[in-house]
Amino acid sequence: MLDDDLNQLLLIVTIVSGGALWLLEGVAPFFRNRRARLKHALLNFSVAALNALVSSILLAVSLAVLNYVRPHWQGLKGLVENEIAAALLLVVIYDLWMYAWHRLNHAVPFFWRFHRFHHQDSEMDVTTGFRFHPFEIIFSEVIRVPILILLGMGAFEILLYNLLSFPIILMHHSNIALPARLDVALSYLVPSPNVHRLHHSVNPAESNANFGSMLSIWDRLFGSLIWRENLTSLRLGVEVREL
Ligand SMILES: [Zn+2]
Ligand SMILES: [Zn+2]
């Protein structure tokens, strides 16, 4: 029952935060040359609809596996007594996995073939946060199962992670022009819009950095955080010769 409530909350939080960011992008855009925003959004949402279907099927299968394993193996979760502390610890460690998985998507040519679909959006905005190649979703859902087992994550922890990370992921993809100081302040905790903008640069030296999803600490810890002052001349997307 709790998981159903969390699922509904996730849907509401995603729609409200996505909608608010979409409106803010219209009022205070970072890149001002955007005209066909609705057409662009419809393309990304059509991909997102397919991905939602694919991931809901694979999630159901993963949860069946996790429920089967749980009586025999509690993973890291079994070592922490306090349930809230355990859930938060798991969510933070799972975010480290997301950081590693994102790096793998850039480092392994086979994975990059699919992940670059996310990067090919040269007019990145909040809807790009939903734009992933369905095969990337499939690989992500399948490859993470041993990680979920190792950590002892179940439906609750997965939903909690999504609930905390989705608004952040939508925010750092959005085309909003945050005051520079606020962007810098945010970047100490989460990847700010400017931090993730650099990750979507056509320049591979810039796109092979800033891999964080929910927390920015992993990029700082593993030396993959880059920063530059003026991003107004930044070109987003993937170089044509690479396609
Ligand atoms: Zn990437
Ligand atoms: Zn991105």
Number of helices: 11
Largest sheet: none
Strand-and-helix sequence, N→C?
HHHHHHHHHHH
Q: Which parts are unreliable, with pLDDT below 50 for 5 consecutive residues or more?
A: none
Quote the distance from N terminus to C terminus: 46 Å
What does this protein structure show overall?
By secondary structure, the protein is mainly α. The chain has a domain at 2-27 and 36-173. The protein is 64% helix and 0% strand. The chain has 11 helices and no strands. Helix 2 (37-69) packs parallel to helix 5 and helix 3 (83-107) packs across helix 7. The chain is globular, with a radius of gyration of 18 Å. The mean pLDDT is 95. The site of one zinc ion (ZN) has 4 residues, from loops.
Summarize the structure.
With 243 residues, this protein is mainly alpha-helical. The chain contains 11 helices and no strands.
Fold topology:
Layout: H1 2-27, H2 37-69, H3 83-107, H4 109-119, H5 134-143, H6 145-151, H7 155-173, H8 180-187, H9 193-199, H10 204-207, H11 217-221
Bound molecules: zinc ion (2 copies).
Descriptive keywords:
single chain; 243 residues; mainly alpha; 0% strand; globular; binds zinc ion
